[in-house]
Amino acid sequence: xxxxxxxxxxxxxxxxxxxxxxxxxxxxxxxxxxxxxxxxxxxxxxxxxxxxxxxxxxxxxxxxxxxxxxxxxxxxxxxxxxxxxxxxxxxxxxxxxxxxxxxxxxxxxxxxxxxxxxxxxxxxxxxxxxxxxxxxxxxxxxxxxxxxxxxxxxxxxxxxxxxxxxxxxxxxxxxxxxxxxxxxxxxxxxxxxxxxxxxxxxxxxxxxxxxxxxxxxxxxxxxxxxxxxxxxxxxxxxxxxxxxxxxxxxxxxxxxxxxxxxxxxxxxxxxxxxxxxxxxxxxxxxxxxxxxxxxxxxxxxxxxxxxxxxxxxxxxxxxxxxxxxxxxxxxxxxxxxxxxxxxxxxxxxxxxxxxxxxxxxxxxxxxxxxxxxxxxxxxxxxxxxxxxxxxxxxxxxxxxx
Length: 401
What we know:
Blueprint: E1 8-12, H1 17-27, E2 31-36, E3 50-51, E4 54-55, H2 56-62, E5 65-69, H3 75-87, E6 90-93, H4 107-113, E7 118-123, H5 131-134, H6 140-147, H7 167-190, E8 195-199, H8 200-205, H9 210-217, E9 237-241, E10 246-250, H10 256-262, H11 277-282, H12 284-296, H13 301-310, E11 315-317, H14 328-332, E12 336-341, E13 345-350, H15 373-379, H16 384-392
């Protein structure tokens, strides 16, 4: 039995943050009905890299969902949604503030009508927020800036830099999926649903380690700064030029002696310049130059990594995302999936990062727009005649991509 088998999720999300939530739920076996607005549905259906109107971006984030394309600006469309919500366990949305409230689908209204419903909202600044921020639009870049992540990324003397992936969107999605799980567990014990309010900024701000409590504890006498590709907090820690590209190192005090052996400098273990962390920080440039020269003495990155692995030194090559294809780690862990699609053929997507021993890996496909209109409405008690009438009126829309 799938972990979330029997859980009906109404997915009113688009782009990345919201669809990440419902994708994670679908991968655990939930029945996810994706609500899309006519005439084009989720804007990501034709986003970035597309073939014959089909986007790999959309496929990756919407596998395993059923598509119901219904105009919920109309009274008849809202009635369809209410029938669906009456049966649903979870509603996930990432619309702008007020969009659902103006149509009668805000938490205050739904919690009274469906007291067992768990509703998750994903937004830039959160639903319960300061009035100056509640209505502000936000995407991943904005969340990275506001959360301090961008401030901490880049060269010491250069401008703040965004991270090269949509970590705000995905982080918020993972936090929302966890929150939904907690809320469903609470409902099992109490019979009452609740609202899960996830902010992209909160989700990123949560990752800071010393960058917040350090300045507060020192009265701002110590402030974090950008470190670039080599850390100022620990040494050796960072990215170093290697024969084929770059290699990342993170050596703590417990590995220092073994690291000295690995780089053929056993005398460094007790050298006054490098014996302790504070000494290595003061002399990090000298030490970094030694490490770069040592790596340059090898012919390949594999030789460098083999030597580091022999001494159990935390290290890794700096890989491009596409280097994962065929890589033994990613293939063995099934961290990369090769999934079929009727338009795109085989698509490589990241695998499900949540591994549960009793949950099988599901073979899921992304839906075409409105592919499941008739199926979902039949589940809600609509007759074939009623479904045809709703389709003829333009309330329901379906396309082949």
